[in-house]
Amino acid sequence: MAARSRLPVTALLGTNMFFSGVTYAATLPYASLVGVDTLSLSPGWFATVMAIGSVLGTLVSLTLGYVSDKLPDRRLLVLITALSGVLAHGMIYAWPTQWSFTLAMALVMPIAGACYSQCFAYIRVYYVRHDPARADFMVTALRTVFTIAWIVVPPIAGWIAAEFSIFNVYLVSSLSHAAVGGIFALLMADRTTAVRMEPPQRAEGTSLLSSLALPLGTLAGLLGLVVMTAAMRILTFTVPLFIVTDLGGTVTDVGLYAGITAAIEAPCMLLLAYLTTLWSKETLLSAAGLVMALFIGLASLLTSLTMFYWLLLLNGLGTAALMSINIPYIQDAIKGRVGLSTSLMDVVAIAANLLGAMAFGLLTTGGNYRFTLMVGAGVAVFGAAIMAGGNWRRLGSRAVARA
């Protein structure tokens, strides 16, 4: 058993995940409003910026994931990615121009974006070493803390954006990245919190690629997750503009939308944790895609902001599944390589950002946000079909631990 730290590690990791959640919750609902509405980027330019960042982010995430399984101290990678977040969002706040937004989102945020998965890789390895029976539980519990940030922060960020400046949300995110970096700098001061999981040894005569191979069902599942998450990105980019232009709302309403969704997510995650004991992850993730499709499709037909808020029950349930069950699903993808497997979370997210940004740029050129949402609903159905089609033997079955 590894030596115990005198630091309150669980409390620090919980605080870390809260601030990690703040970095997303303070900025993600406002990205298209800042880029398109405030800085006057064309939808095509905004989409290109997000697409470039997604491509670079994929390369960075895979590289860091592979390296993290070989480093004696993976905490350093978290610190580096957190400081990149300080720089990227600090640039947008300090110099709110089209070019600072472009440079930050296309070149610096691809590094910062890996912070989320590197945090979870460290969490998984730490608890596997110190309390293996509770490792999966702690991953889920700390993901719930991340969700709490989404409950608390978006309404506050919306108020800040409305009363002061929308660019202040990037200051909040930059300071939160600094908090994440500070927590891991404190952990690095204690040698007992340095953890490493040895990757499996390759059999003699086998290649490196063979040890990293993914079963076809897993590949289909990952592709399905990419497509379903892309539908969520289309929703994320489009809904703020849809609320403001089609439903007559304000930036405060955008914050309420994100906060209400997160508030619904938290209890749904507890329900989903129970449902994973009854049905396979593939079943639940496929169902989540259909729930998201129903929400996005119905939202595209609305003219009332009040009715939109009621529909957020569906959004919270679908989002909870796609953002919580996906973590243990992805971490089991490559046996014995937690860092590399967890980096696939970033690959899924980044590929989804790329697809979502491209779709947003193409579909919103004429300013028709309703049609964009309708297409997003179709994308969600397609992703669910890929997940289900590639894993049809596991649909409706109980979860089985992967070898």
Automatic annotation (TrEMBL):
Coiled coil: none
Statement: the UniProt record of this protein carries the keyword Ribonucleoprotein: no
Keywords: Cell membrane, Membrane, Sugar transport, Transmembrane, Transmembrane helix, Transport
Bilayer disposition of the protein: Multi-pass membrane protein
Segments passing through the bilayer: 44-64, 76-95, 101-125, 137-161, 167-187, 208-234, 254-276, 283-302, 308-330, 342-363, 369-388
Matches recorded under SUPFAM superfamilies: MFS general substrate transporter
The organism's place on the tree of life at top rank: Bacteria
Major site of localization recorded for this protein: membrane
InterPro entries per the UniProt record, alphabetical: MFS (IPR011701), MFS_trans_sf (IPR036259)
Subcellular locations according to the entry: Cell membrane
PANTHER family, alphabetized: SUGAR EFFLUX TRANSPORTER A-RELATED
Protein name per its UniProtKB record: MFS transporter
